[in-house]
Design brief:
Chains A, B: It comes from Catenulispora yoronensis. The structure is a homodimer. Chain A is an alpha+beta fold and about 375 residues long. Chain A has helices at about 1-10, 20-25, 40-45, 60-70, 75-85, 85-95, 110-120, 145-155, 210-230, 260-265, 270-280, 310-315, 345-360; strands at about 15, 30, 105, 125, 135-140, 160-165, 170-180, 185, 190-195, 200-205, 230-240, 245-250, 290-300, 320-325, 335-340. The two termini of chain A are about 35 Å apart.
Amino acid sequence: MQQAAIGLGVNLRVLAQRPDDPAALVMPGTMIGDHDDLDVLRKFADGCDVLTFDHEHVPTDYLHELEAAGVAVRPGPDALVHAQDKGKMRQKLTELGLPCPAWALVATRDDLADFGAAVGFPYVLKATRGGYDGRGVWVVDDLAEAEDVLAGAAERGVTLLAEAKVPFVRELSAQVARSPHGQAAAYPVVESLQIDGICREVYVPAPGLPESAALEAQRVALTIAKELGVTGMLAVEMFQTPDGEVLINELAMRPHNSGHWSMDGAVTGQFEQHLRAVLDLPLGEVRPVAPVVVMANVLGLDLPEVYPAYKHVMAHDPGVKVHMYGKGVKPGRKIGHVNVLGTTVGDAVERARHAAAYLRGEIDE
Amino acid sequence: MQQAAIGLGVNLRVLAQRPDDPAALVMPGTMIGDHDDLDVLRKFADGCDVLTFDHEHVPTDYLHELEAAGVAVRPGPDALVHAQDKGKMRQKLTELGLPCPAWALVATRDDLADFGAAVGFPYVLKATRGGYDGRGVWVVDDLAEAEDVLAGAAERGVTLLAEAKVPFVRELSAQVARSPHGQAAAYPVVESLQIDGICREVYVPAPGLPESAALEAQRVALTIAKELGVTGMLAVEMFQTPDGEVLINELAMRPHNSGHWSMDGAVTGQFEQHLRAVLDLPLGEVRPVAPVVVMANVLGLDLPEVYPAYKHVMAHDPGVKVHMYGKGVKPGRKIGHVNVLGTTVGDAVERARHAAAYLRGEIDE
């Protein structure tokens, strides 16, 4: 976001947990502290015109306290809670008549069995907030497995949400921006390729998506932004079912991995758009600047240092846009991404995939 | 340059004269000190992989000292001196057979008279380095005026260069990048509109420029980059004469005002390209992402604060890209610029001009 803030001449300050957090490395005046400490939050907010987020983990109650003290929190806690708590998200979206997989909050063995009877096994259990043992999502094949998850969750005070396992042909993401006075803008709907639950690639616009389906996905995202009172960027991750319908999977109220393509591929990138939205400035044009844009994440693998790989990647393809986050390399960690502007999906995917694979050390020749 | 450095995951440090210099406001670890103090330069260079510049004012001798001490200075002093000293520039370009206006170093009344006899009055006098009374260029109408300038210069130890006043139809700029191992890339040749010696607008590509003339301008710039051993970005400002030829006006060995369009308008912006070049990374694609790109400078005028004007500018035209530098507003000072991607020159110029005029306070409705 600092790149966009520099362009706009907007002074960005960050609350970081550690001095070597990526954001802290690229801007002055960083405050080091915990985002779940109300005193730290109060001190940080002092002198800020607007407070915004790059993750969902600031406790909702603390955000209410800050709002009560006059801080402009954007998105506000009444909106953000729907990105923090999957149970509240499902309740609200269902109230609004928006398309969700079958779901239920489950607290007992009977709840688990009833849900299994209704949708069949396997189904999905999710922690409504956080998770345990480093996980927040479990696919359970039968009642016994479901009971194990429930027992583990109960021990730790974690509430569970059950969802039908949707048979989908692909995942889509609809991103919109909305400002406090209600202006909204919808980016093209994109397809995201997830492997083991991690976003690997994004194709813009979603290849072969009929206009009616794209408009419906955008309508869903705009409705959510409006009805939940979102300010800033909203990403609505969706499943596309075999019969072409879309079902809402997750919400994120911040710039999102599925929108990184826009940093090079749209007239207004999502980080600039987020700043414009939370500052209540008019929103920017969302038009892509190429017929096809492809983003590929760089996941840490073998290379301890990515920089030496630049020479090959940049020589091989002078059009690849490299974005590295200044994070230490750990296997599986998102440490950067590449964007490619192209004319055909096949060509752009091949170029982005090669660059990302080389940067992570998957290709050694 | 910090925006590009963030994208590449490259750690940029700046030597600034004051803590509120624009660059110091957007990156951590700024060192405050004078660029004409060798001890400061040595201390700053310690630990840098590469030293580069955003102006030409670091004394050539000090750069030689740093190079001798093993610092990678890019561009090096043997190249940079041609952007620092207009006399050396003219000598070298003439040796290389590159097209310059008629010129002479002038130190006496006879020199001034001889040059007037050769090219006629009015002609142009320039300080080879710096200037005096806040000026470095004088147009003299007759010998008496020329003598006045010479007397003032002599008093201050300033060397003068005389140049024919070129009758030109417009000004062009050819930007190229060159890396230490010799790779080079040429951006499209652009037209720049100068008013009172200050760049106001840039049109990309230069409208109506025949391909042969564009290729010739690029050849000139690539030749200069190679023969002078330039590393990083080089801008060659040129006059286009009524018969379609180009004559070299000035050189800049850094990202340049005539290349700001590329920040939004090319696959690789000039700041990223400069970093790639001085780091000896392969250069990026220079292709524009729109048929027409127009840049308009925002010059300080009446508004003490530009930010309140954002609402109008962004609402009026969501496609305008605003770049503000975090400088205090002073009349005539370049405090920012806007870029517009378009399909026709007329439309893009009108959009960029409106936005720049509104940001500076020239339009109040």
